C-alpha cells in the first residue's frame, strides 16, 4: 500500500561543478547553488562524487555537509574509497549507483541481483553509521527484490529510458516503460522499501512519475541547471515543484 506523504524534490548540483571545472576556476560554486536551491524549496541536495572527480570534488562534499540545513544525498559507486568518504562525513543518505569512467552520465541501474553478497556487506557499515541507504536501479522486479533482501531502505528507480523514449517520440515504448516504472514502484512499496525516482526528468516528463503515489522523492539535476541559464535556479526549481504538486493532485 502506498505511504502517504509529501512528494520531495532533491536537486542535483553536479553540473554546476561541471561548468566550474570546464575552466578550472573557483566558480560557479556548487555550495552556493545548493544554498539557492534550498532557499527555493528543495527538500534535499544530491551530489555524485565520481571516482575520476569530473564534477563534484571532495571539498564540495565537505562544504555541503557544513553549509546545508536540508539533507545531503551522497551518490557514489560501491568502492572502498567512496565507502570511507561516506563514513567520514555520514551524510543523511547514500545512494549507490553504477559507475563507468567512459560514460557521460549514469547509463543504467545498479546490478543488485548478481552482486547481492558483495553489496550486502558494502552497505551494512553505512547503515550502522546512520546513513539511509538507497540503490539506484532499473524498473526490474529482480533488482527490486534483491535490494530489499540485502537491507537497502530505499530504491531510486531509473527514469532515463522513459525520458529518452519521450524525447525521441517513441510514444508506445515510452508508455510501456512508464507502466514498468509504475508497477515497480508499487512492488517496491509492497516490500516495505521507500521509493524514489530520477534521471533525465524535465518539465515535460515529470508529471506522470510525480503522480505515482508510491514515489516519495524525485531527484532532478541536469535539466534544472540547464533551465537556470534562462530563468534562474530559484524560478526553475519553483516551476518544477509546481508541476510535481499539480501532478500529485
Structure in words:
The longest helix has 20 residues, at 171-190. The radius of gyration is 17 Å and the shape is globular. An eight-stranded parallel beta barrel has the order 1-2-3-4-5-6-7-8, surrounded by seven helices. The mean pLDDT is 95. It has 249 residues and is of the alpha/beta class. It has one domain (8-242): TIM Barrel, CATH 3.20.20.70. It has helices spanning 14-23, 30-40, 58-67, 80-89, 116-129, 141-149, 160-167, 171-190, 206-210, 222-231, 233-248; strands at 8-12, 44-48, 72-76, 93-96, 132-137, 154-158, 194-198, 215-220.
Itemize the secondary structure elements and their pairings:
Blueprint: E1 8-12, H1 14-23, H2 30-40, E2 44-48, H3 58-67, E3 72-76, H4 80-89, E4 93-96, H5 116-129, E5 132-137, H6 141-149, E6 154-158, H7 160-167, H8 171-190, E7 194-198, H9 206-210, E8 215-220, H10 222-231, H11 233-248
Parallel strand pairs: 1-2, 1-8, 2-3, 3-4, 4-5, 5-6, 6-7, 7-8
Helix pairs in contact: 2-3, 2-11, 4-5, 7-8, 10-11
Amino acid at each position: 500500500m502506498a505511504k502517504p506523504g509529501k512528494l520531495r524534490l532533491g536537486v542535483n548540483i553536479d553540473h554546476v561543478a561541471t561548468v566550474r571545472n570546464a575552466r578550472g576556476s573557483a566558480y560557479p560554486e556548487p555550495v552556493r547553488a545548493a544554498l539557492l536551491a534550498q532557499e527555493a524549496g528543495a527538500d534535499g541536495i544530491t551530489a555524485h562524487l565520481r571516482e575520476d572527480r569530473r564534477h563534484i570534488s571532495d571539498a564540495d562534499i565537505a562544504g555541503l555537509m557544513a553549509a546545508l540545513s536540508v539533507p545531503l544525498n551522497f551518490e557514489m559507486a560501491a568502492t572502498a574509497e567512496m565507502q570511507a568518504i561516506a563514513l567520514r562525513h555520514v551524510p543523511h543518505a547514500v545512494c549507490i549507483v553504477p559507475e563507468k569512467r567512459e560514460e557521460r552520465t549514469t547509463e543504467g541501474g545498479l546490478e543488485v541481483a548478481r552482486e547481492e553478497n558483495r553489496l550486502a556487506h558494502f552497505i551494512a557499515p553505512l547503515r550502522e553509521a546512520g546513513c539511509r541507504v538507497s540503490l539506484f536501479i532499473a524498473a526490474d522486479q529482480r533488482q527490486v527484490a534483491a535490494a530489499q533482501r540485502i537491507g537497502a531502505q530505499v530504491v531510486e528507480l531509473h527514469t532515463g529510458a522513459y525520458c529518452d523514449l519521450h524525447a525521441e517520440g517513441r510514444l508506445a515504448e515510452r508508455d510501456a516503460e512508464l507502466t514498468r516504472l509504475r508497477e515497480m514502484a508499487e512492488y517496491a512499496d509492497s516490500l516495505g522499501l521507500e521509493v524514489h525516482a530520477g534521471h533525465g526528468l524535465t518539465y515535460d516528463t515529470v508529471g506522470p512519475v510525480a503522480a505515482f503515489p508510491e514515489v516519495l522523492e524525485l531527484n532532478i539535476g541536469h535539466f534544472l541547471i540547464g533551465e537556470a541559464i534562462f530563468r534562474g535556479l530559484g524560478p526553475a526549481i519553483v516551476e518544477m515543484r509546481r508541476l510535481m504538486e499539480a501532478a500529485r493532485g
